């Protein structure tokens, strides 16, 4: 009986210790790294066997395919404001044609990479924009808009021959390299790490699209900009930082590394409905995008 009583006491102590450990883990919560791919082991589309290798490759590629954040200094007839107007308009065109998200991000990437290596007169800037979207569609879309549709949306400012000639010029200037990691691939991965719901996802994409319009954001790699957009969206929705060890593990960025970029995003959010470049704001003011613009900016981040 004594032995049985002692064993029972030991069992009770072990249970209590487990409970205390569980409570401490819940309190510290931030110190646990969640395996976000465990639930997808049987999903062949999730490619869990080499997903980590894939994103290691993406991180290396974003460095080698980066555009100089000062490339406008080499342009004599266009400036960053014109680039912003073009991107803002293309976001509306992308929405009108109901294209895939990937197409928008690749379009912007192609434009910046082309302008970084080729001087352009301003009257050809819109031509570069629609042609870059045509190329991105050919790379990403199942059903590609015809050239005439893009000419029409440009108010017939260019001919079919001009579009096709520009297409050849762009692909040769970029050496036919269309396979580059854009913010989109990192957004999807980091949102999975954040265990996001639809509200967080839409707000994060609203913030990252605001970044696409801003020339100054070229100084950040796509992975950091994506992580900062999600971090900022979490702060908007929850009123405080939610960045934990899981976020850090999969993004490779700490909260401190994101703050500078995040503060800029807060400023874009605050001014998104003002001025002339309001294409992103109008897009995310609709029910289709969850009225994401109604969420208040995380202004407290400006004080950190």
Question: What does this 3D model show about the protein?
Answer:
Essential for the control of the cell cycle at the G2/M (mitosis) transition. Interacts with the CDC2 protein kinase to form a serine/threonine kinase holoenzyme complex also known as maturation promoting factor (MPF). The cyclin subunit imparts substrate specificity to the complex. Residues 3-30 form a coiled coil. Residues 181-298 form the Cyclin C-terminal domain. The chain has 304 residues and is mostly helical. It contains 13 helices and no strands. The protein has two domains: 72-173, Cyclin-like (Cyclin A, domain 1), CATH 1.10.472; 183-303, Cyclin-like (Cyclin A, domain 1, Orthogonal Bundle), CATH 1.10.472.10. The chain has helices at 2-28, 51-64, 80-96, 101-115, 125-140, 147-153, 160-173, 183-193, 198-213, 222-238, 245-251, 255-270, 279-283. The protein is globular.
Question: Nutshell version of this structure?
Answer:
The chain is mostly helical and 304 residues long.
Secondary-structure blueprint:
Blueprint: H1 2-28, H2 51-64, H3 80-96, H4 101-115, H5 125-140, H6 147-153, H7 160-173, H8 183-193, H9 198-213, H10 222-238, H11 245-251, H12 255-270, H13 279-283
**How many whole angstroms does the radius of gyration measure?**
23 Å
Strand tally = 0
Uncertain segments of ≥5 residues (pLDDT<50)? Answer: 24-30
CATH superfamily placement of the largest domain: Cyclin-like
Q: What is the number of helical segments per DSSP (H or I, 4+ residues)?
A: 13
Helix/strand-derived category reads mainly alpha
CATH hierarchy: architecture of the largest domain: Orthogonal Bundle
* Annotated CATH topology of the largest domain: Cyclin A, domain 1
Shape label: globular
Task: Indicate the percent of residues in helices.
Answer: 55-70%
Percent range for β-strand residues: under 5%
**What is the CATH class name of the largest domain?**
Mainly Alpha
Rounded mean pLDDT score: 90
**N- and C-termini, Cα separation:** 62 Å
């Amino acid at each position: 009986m004594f032995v049985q009583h002692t064993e029972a006491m030991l069992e009770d102590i072990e249970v209590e210790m487990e409970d205390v450990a569980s409570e401490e883990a819940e309190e510290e919560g931030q110190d646990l790294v969640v395996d976000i791919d465990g639930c997808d082991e049987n999903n062949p589309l999730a490619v869990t066997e080499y997903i980590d290798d894939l994103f290691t490759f993406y991180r290396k590629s974003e460095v080698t395919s980066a555009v100089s954040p000062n490339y406008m200094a080499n342009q004599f007839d266009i400036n960053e404001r014109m680039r912003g107007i073009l991107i803002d308009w293309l976001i509306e065109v992308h929405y009108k044609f109901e294209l895939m998200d990937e197409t928008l991000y690749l379009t912007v990437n192609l434009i910046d990479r082309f302008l970084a290596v080729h001087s352009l007169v301003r009257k050809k800037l819109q031509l570069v924009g629609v042609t870059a979207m045509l190329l991105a569609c050919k790379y990403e879309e199942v059903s590609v808009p015809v050239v005439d549709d893009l000419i029409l949306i440009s108010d017939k400012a260019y001919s079919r021959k001009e579009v096709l000639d520009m297409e050849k010029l762009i692909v040769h200037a970029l050496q036919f390299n269309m396979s580059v990691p854009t913010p989109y691939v990192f957004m999807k991965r980091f949102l999975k790490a954040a265990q996001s719901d639809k509200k967080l996802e839409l707000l994060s994409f609203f913030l990252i699209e605001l970044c696409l319009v801003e020339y100054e954001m070229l100084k950040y790699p796509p992975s950091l900009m994506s992580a900062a957009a999600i971090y900022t969206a979490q702060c908007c929705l929850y009123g405080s930082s939610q960045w934990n060890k899981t976020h850090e593990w999969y993004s490779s960025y700490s909260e401190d590394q994101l703050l500078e970029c995040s503060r800029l995003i807060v400023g874009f959010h605050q001014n998104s409905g003002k001025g002339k470049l309001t294409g992103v704001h109008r897009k995310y003011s609709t029910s289709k995008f969850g009225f994401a613009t109604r969420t208040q900016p995380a202004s407290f981040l400006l004080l950190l």
